[in-house]
Specification:
The chain is mainly beta. It has helices at residues 16-34, 145-150, 209-212, and strands at residues 46-52, 55-60, 66-69, 78-83, 88-92, 95-99, 106-112, 120-125, 128-134, 141-144, 159-165, 168-182, 185-195, 205-207, 216-220, 223-229. It contains three helices and 16 strands. Strands 8, 9, 10, 11, 12, 13 and 14 form a seven-stranded mixed sheet that branches. It has a three-stranded antiparallel sheet with strand order 1-2-3, with no helix packed on it. The chain has a three-stranded antiparallel sheet with strand order 4-5-6, with no helix packed on it. Strand 11 and strand 12 form a beta hairpin.
Length: 231
């Protein structure tokens, strides 16, 4: 066996039961995704740095702080409705937020487990929706080479490693995905790996810890809430 990279540690532990479950997921992914979490359009995130008379100094989507005036709507779709002595009211993606200086909005994804306790989602990798599963045992975001090729990812330029799958050894490549989205949460430059197998062998994207470690995860029964704050 060749060298093992951090992005494929989980792949080396995939067993037959997991692969069988993935094949089952391929048949039901569309139905499951429709009732769990759809990767909707990305709502802008806002952080309030300071307040002034009729003005709020804000950071939108992590950008540099800039001034917004009451009644103004930015190109990101953020509207400043009003400003008081201690808070500003914004409308973002149809939702109203009241934020004080030092506070910010957050992006989130609310997921529902299936009968087997697994969380299936429709993730977006580089803007393309793909069936996926939340996998806290995976060290990175992982996909098959067939989907990677469709996305235009030049994965063969990544560091080549060897992964042990249920079907035997397979070549994998360590890559960085420009963007990965689950629900409203969008992360950039996410470490991952592409396994040189078909969609039949690996039908789901594994949303592993290279994504999950950057969000807050809370589970209550069959519901999981992922949140990422802008501050």
């Amino acid at each position: 066996m060749g060298p093992r990279g951090p992005g494929v540690r989980r792949e080396g532990r995939l067993n037959h039961a997991m692969m069988k479950a993935m094949r089952r997921c391929l048949r039901i992914a569309v139905l499951v995704a429709s009732c769990t979490c759809i990767g909707a359009t990305w709502a802008a995130t806002v952080y309030v740095a300071a307040l002034g008379y009729g003005r709020a100094d804000v950071r939108i989507n992590g950008s540099e702080v800039r001034a917004m005036w009451v009644g103004e709507t930015t190109l990101e779709g953020v509207t400043l409705r009003s400003v008081t002595d201690d808070a500003a009211v914004f409308e973002i993606g149809g939702k109203v937020w009241m934020l004080k200086p030092g506070q910010g909005t957050y992006a989130q994804a609310k997921l529902q487990a299936d009968a087997h306790g697994q969380f299936f989602v429709t993730a977006q990798v580089n803007g393309m929706p793909l069936p996926a599963i939340i996998d806290t045992g995976a060290t990175a975001v992982v996909m098959n080479s067939e989907d990677a090729y469709r996305l235009g990812i030049d994965y063969m330029r990544g560091r080549r490693v060897v992964a042990q799958t249920a079907s035997g050894t397979a070549t994998a490549y360590l890559v960085t995905f420009p963007s990965v989205q689950v629900g409203d949460i969008v992360l950039s430059e996410v470490p991952g790996s592409v396994i040189d197998v078909s969609r039949r062998e690996l039908p789901l994207v594994l949303i592993g810890m290279s994504f999950l470690r950057n969000v807050d995860m809370r589970r209550s029964g069959d519901t999981m809430l992922l949140q990422r704050r802008d501050y």
